[in-house]
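User: Please predict the structure of the protein below. I'd like the answer in structure-token form so I can feed it into my own downstream comparison script.

Assistant: Understood. Taking the following sequence of 870 residues as input:
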Amino acid sequence: MTAEAASSLKINHPKFIKGSASSSGSTVPGRYIVRFKDSKSTNEFTQTYFKKNKASKKHKLKIKETIKHDFFNAVSVDIDANATDDNHVTSTLKNILDQADVEYVYPVRTLPRPKVTVESVGKSKEPTVLPHAMTQVDKVHSELKKKGKGILVGVLDTGIDYNHPALGGGFGKGFKVIKGYDLVGDAYTGQNTPKPDDDPLDNCGADSGASGHGTHVSGIIAGYDKATNFTGVAPEANLGMWRVFGCDGQVTNDIVIKALLMAYDAGCDVINLSLGETNAWSVTTDAEADVVSQIAKKGVSVVISAGNSGAQGIYTVGQPSTSPGAFSVASIENSYYISKDLTATGINHSILYTNSNDDSSLEDGAVVAGDKNPGNSEEACTAAAINPEVKGKIALIKRGTCAFADKVNNAAGAGAVGVVIYNNVAGALTASVPGVTVPVVSISNADGKELLAAIQKSKDAVELKFNKKGSVQPIENAGTVSTFSSVGASAELNFKPNIAGIGGNVYSTMPTYLDSWGVMSGTSMAAPYVAGSVALYLEAVKNSNKQSIAYINEQFQNYAAPAKVYNSKTIDSPLRQGAGLVQVYDTITQGVHISPAQISFNDTATSKYRTQTITITNHGHQTVQYELVNDVTTAISPYDLKESGYTPLEPAINSVAAAKLRFSKKTFRLSPGHSQKVKITVTPPKINPKEHVMYGGFIHLKTKHHGKNGSIDLRVPYFGVVGSQKTLPIFDDGFPTIIDVNSKEYSTDDTFVYDRSKKYGFPISVLRLLTPSAKIKAELLDSKKKVIGEFLTGLEYVGRNFLSGEGQVYSQYAWDGTYVPAGFSGVESLPIAVPAGTYSFRFSALKNLGNPKDKKDWETWTSGPIVVKN
């Protein structure tokens, strides 16, 4: 049982900004960012605080990072958790917050390492695996002759192997990678002390477990290698790398903030962040969100991946891409990919396979059925079931019932030299089987059945030959939104993600210790594709009038291409793809502009968003004529009320729900230099509001004059929700709850006895949220049910939980028997210990989009009696 001590969070103060709380509970105990009003205060604090404050010696306060910038002056501090005073964190924070030059204090949070799927494929000379025809990047290169020259793209990531030929072969002036810094060092994990240096090289080595993420991202943006026919999006752009991850582990947000500011100060025109955490709130109270927005206001595009949690349904778009200033990027599947394949005697076509572990020792040879009774649901799950003929051969085994590793180990124990696992359901299989002694590959259900039939039919051995270099193959769901791509909207129903790039099956550079080339999938790949696209645009317009980042983002959205649902003619929801896939040539060459470029009609209970206005401006040289059309997209059903109530579906499912739009002008002509305002009024779909279906579509401006010199169509994506969001439940059924250290659960009818003389006798509260909440109050009640204070603070802008994984519950909090008195708004007094007696906990959660002043907009839960004994 792990539980976070509540005492470290008991502080209420107007300068203390809790920020948003991740469902994975990423706050670092004892770590805080102290933000000052100016750089002079930063210097004075670091130089004099230890001398002026005896308490700092007692509590062993350590300065971790110093950030001096016009946008953000701060230090991050570590308050020693081993100090003898039980209230050491609060007393030290009191000391800091009492100082007049302190502006804000934020808890430090960790951001997880980007999650991607990786496949090393070796060199390819096949240009067809590059997605540039899908995005018009190829036309920008060939017709406009723009390749990013003179543009500097900054990358915050795991470092870069700049010795790679496609990345310039060196670092510094005269190379492709001209700027950068390592803020952390190889050994940094997010839990230890960084060891920075001025070289952002990723030289972790194959045995470190590092994925080469930053090198892959960099190649997507600006790589170029004539020998292998590889071209990134902006191959003549320069790169800067600010390394924020070590070879393994996470990063704290104070380092990300510092890196963002370093990249800005280095003169970057675009900054790419393929990182973040799953929390859909877009509040600017988070320190990094504030910095992102300030950088964007100063004219630097900040492109951020939306996240890879699409399988978990709605509200999975992540921070800091939810920042109002960020360009949040969803992922679209590539058209082609390089797949390894094998051939088998008796089968007249190649069979595609994926590595389940290292296949370097897998040699061509005979394959036999791995089970004595092949085709059953428990193939190879016991040693006795293994076909003795596998000795010295490759075993073919069907997926099902037991773990992959058990199947493989049983086959290897009987002498198999390799294993081919095939799916037990329709479709391909990508199985991960580490830690076994023989190489393993995975194939589809259909191919597995065909291979088994060939084995059973043939009198001679069926021989397999492996093409490990791979070949170019079409992707079945090309051009559709990747299933992993995170789904909006923001928790406030702001429009996120904003746009999409190619992120599924992207071929790019890898560190030389990982064979130099490889394929990765993730929104981590989509973001750099958009960052490179912005670099092309900036080169094309650099001699024009200065454009704001908001304008540039809108221009990309205006001309993006909406993706359709897989195997359907229906357009996919803007909540999955934003405005659609970037179309760089049109974005650069077209002169008509629409603002705003995205619309949220909010929910049907919020009438003030029902009518909105867009402005169409003709910056071109010819008169244009448009007809406005409502292109309805698929709707998203977040819930199945009959089966699972308001537990969000994972993934969310598509449904049919079409809104009607009324335009103040249905058609119009627009001459050069003029603008036209159009009011759009929505009539939401007439469906059950209790289902909270998220409808959507595109306002399609269809041009009347097509052709080489004519204008082209533009689109503005929109979405809304049928129903009132503040009627949704916050707490899942059975939560909150109280448990002890042995995970015994106490219902509201049970009495929990907290004997403070026992080391582990404390109660632990457990939260699980169905819907994001902007505020959760944790109040302590006395025996007469009167509120005497808060036993826990800091639960603000909390994201929803998931059915599995790290986000399954919000967090577990052990109560230390102290509280902050009711009505208390400062830190003059410390949390005080309760006397012996009977108490109870009351959690009150603000409903989504609710009014904190309206009692009806709060959902409450009260525990059973908690008897405190000394």
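That's the full token string. The longest helix spans residues 523-541.
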